[in-house]
Amino acid sequence: MENMILKHMDVVRGITTSIFEKTTEEAADITPKGFNNNIRWNLGHIAFIQEKLVFGLAGEPMQTPESYESFFGAGTKPADWTEAAAPSLEEIANVLKDQAHRIKEFMPEQFDKQLITPFTNKAGINFTTVGETFLFSFYHEAMHVETIKQIGKAAAAQ
Q1: Helix (H, G, I), strand (E, B) or coil at 13
Q2: Which of 26, 72, 104, 149 could form a disulfide with 48 if both were Cys (CB 3.0 to 4.6 A apart)?
Q3: Interhelix angle for 89-106 vs 39-54, to 10°?
Q4: Claim: this prediction has a pTM higher than 0.70
Q5: Tens digit of pLDDT per residue, the chain (158 long)?
Q6: Phi, psi values for residue 61, rounded to 5°
Q7: What angle is formed at CA 9 by the lines to CA 23 and CA 74, rounded to 5 degrees?
Q8: Which of 76, 73, 80 shows the shortest CA–CA distance to 56?
């Protein structure tokens, strides 16, 4: 079962990384009317939150760059960025690829590991194991991929 779940992660991550092939640096920074965030933010957010859900909540060191929390953490948005430049699409793509490899090495035998502290997300869903947060991360990633598609459509219509 663990192998099937890890293969599913590859499918989800493959869908996400295909976005990089279709997105320019310029297009990644368009925040259409009605949206708080842009494509760059959503891709970086996927990387940061999966890192937190899989590694951070398990008490493992997070390996996303330190700046990712201020750029891409929950509640952040590009309009509030104070640093000179957000990470490039290439950097975010590399972080996502590296992260997938690290998860494949880490996750076997970790699905039932208890989190350091139970975690409740913004929707009120409670998680107690690494496996629960890992599986939820697929849903989270898919939600943001859909948002990226909607941003692309809205930007093209403007």
Answers
A1: helix
A2: 72
A3: 20
A4: yes
A5: 888 999 999 999 999 999 999 999 999 999 999 999 999 999 999 999 999 999 999 999 999 999 999 999 999 999 988 877 899 999 999 999 999 999 999 999 899 999 999 999 989 999 999 999 999 999 999 999 999 999 999 998 88
A6: -65, 135
A7: 65
A8: 73
For 114, the enclosing helix (H) or strand (E) is strand 114-120
Q: Are 12 and 138 in contact (CB under 8 A)?
A: yes
Burial grade of 34 (CB within 10 A; 0-12, 13-18, 19 or more): exposed
Q: Which segments of the chain does DSSP mark as H helices, in order? A: 2-22, 25-28, 39-54, 67-72, 89-106, 130-157
How far is residue 10's CA from residue 125's CA, in Å, rounded to a whole number?
25
Which tokens hold the place of 34? 């009605």
Considering only CA atoms, give the Rg of the chain.
16
Give me 93's structure tokens: 């793509």
- Cα separation, 132 vs 76, in Å, equals 25
Q: What are 129's strand-pairing partners?
A: 114
Determine the Cα angle at 72 with ends 102 and 44, to 5°: 50
In which residue are the tokens 């990384």 written?
Answer: 17
DSSP 24: -
